[in-house]
Write a structure and sequence with these properties.
alpha+beta, two-stranded antiparallel ribbon, 234 residues, three-stranded antiparallel beta sheet, 5 helices
Length: 234
């Protein structure tokens, strides 16, 4: 399978990010067909057979950060038998609550789209970096720019002004640094991975791979498309 859709320059010996400068698409909230599109092409290439087959990571899947075929579309979810609070899942809010464990006692474990860092060894929070590197094989952290971080507090509506480098406190209205990049409705949850960016968190691994890896090991959130992971190349 493919996890790094990088562009190889044979003569220069570099592994660069794909050039998506001229990619054009629209998202129309009035058109349900958008749910099945994959404009940023961050799915998986399966080359285990005689040829290669592309597996899409659609807008619908991106919104929930899932790759399993059981939940690949709204119709698939309705036919899956999934329930929330004893009722069949038929609406988007039910599906989101069911897969993230919203309102359950173990929500902090199940909620893999949580943006803010809680106390202790919580590593399940949002973290996006623009590392400005042009070659995957050469890591230069000197000019890294953190765009979003759930372990520090955004200046907007900060309450504890003397503690900006600590996680935000929800009950006083604080937010994660750069929260607006992933959270459109101010609920401290990411709206999935970014359908306009094949690598939401900037760690050079495509979103599909990070989600699939997260699903397969049975522990959601330890590998995440919304949290920058190490780029060690050796």
């Amino acid at each position: 399978t493919s996890c790094l859709p990088l562009s190889q320059d044979g003569s220069g010996g570099t592994l660069a990010r794909p050039d998506t400068e001229f990619t054009w698409f629209t998202l129309n909230p009035a058109d349900p067909n958008d749910a099945n599109e994959d404009p940023d092409q961050d799915g998986n290439w399966d080359c285990s057979g005689a040829g290669c087959t592309y597996e899409s990571y659609t807008n619908f899947q991106e919104f929930y950060a899932i790759t399993t075929s059981d939940y690949s579309s709204p119709n698939a979810v309705r036919l899956s038998g999934l329930t929330h609070d004893g009722m069949p899942v038929e609406e988007g809010w039910q599906f989101r609550a069911a897969i993230l464990g919203l309102g359950q006692s173990n929500e902090l474990i199940l909620n893999y789209l949580k943006l803010d860092k809680f106390g202790g060894p919580d590593a399940q929070y949002g973290y996006i970096v623009d590392d400005k590197d042009t070659n995957f094989l050469i890591v230069d952290p000197s000019d890294d720019e953190v765009l979003m971080a759930g372990n520090i507090t955004d200046a907007w509506d900060i309450y504890y002004t003397g503690s900006p480098n600590t996680p935000p406190v929800r009950n006083v209205g604080e937010h994660e640094y750069g929260w607006y990049l992933l959270d459109l409705d101010d609920d401290h949850l990411a709206e999935g991975s970014n359908p306009m960016n094949w690598d939401t968190d900037g760690d050079w691994m495509n979103d599909w791979f990070e989600v699939r890896d997260d699903e397969e090991d049975g522990v959601r959130g330890d590998s995440s498309p919304i949290r920058y992971d190490s780029r060690q190349t050796s």
